[in-house]
Specification:
Elements (H helix, E strand, L loop, with lengths): L1 H22 L24 H9 L3
Length: 59
């Protein structure tokens, strides 16, 4: 039971630290246009890799 409580406390500490990082203006997490499902890009502004592939006619 002690191991569970220690593990739970450590996880709470890490979650709190991540929340503090977000509150102090850390940039938001962004997705990319690549990945396993590269056939559909949901980005508002296309990334450089996507622009290059479209210019080469591969997409």
């Amino acid at each position: 039971m002690n191991l569970f409580l220690i593990t739970f406390a450590v996880m709470l500490i890490f979650i709190a630290l991540m929340a503090i990082g977000v509150m102090f203006g850390r940039r938001a997490i962004k997705g990319s246009c690549g990945g396993l499902n590269s056939g559909s890009c949901v980005c508002i502004e296309k990334c450089e890799k996507r622009k290059k592939l479209e210019a080469e006619g591969q997409v």
